[in-house]
Fold HSP20 family protein.
Amino acid sequence: MLVRTDPFRDLERLMFGTGATRVRRFDSGSAAIPMDAFRKGDEFVVTFDLPGVTPESIDVNVERNVLTVTAQRPAVKDDEARWQIAERPTGTFTRRVRLGEALDRDGIQANYDAGVLTLRVPVVEQAQSRKIAVTAGAPAIEA
């Protein structure tokens, strides 16, 4: 038997009766995927949390300047199980990220490891920062 603390237990008893058992099931429908994004050197790195998702169910697509990540995590099907709690999200997950003009869409690399999808997007050479030399001396403007 699974025991947990539930602050809404008394409210549920009032709503569903004292002897009622209710399975709490969370279905994401099309939930957003948690992500982090940062620039490191000459690339833009985006990581997405996708625990329990198989690499085959992940779809990464770029159309114009929109990067779309879609993944699916199926619900566990077991007709003999008597569920007590079912809170892990299942279904289709989607996240869209708008890419700036300074990013190379053709050079995107994707890696999935330990439930984390990592995308590395190179920064185009023209957009990378450059050091500009400053010279001392008389101004170049003549009157």
The two ends are 91 Å apart (CA to CA). The chain is about 5% helix and 40% strand. Residues 32-124 form a domain with the Immunoglobulin-like fold (CATH 2.60.40.790).
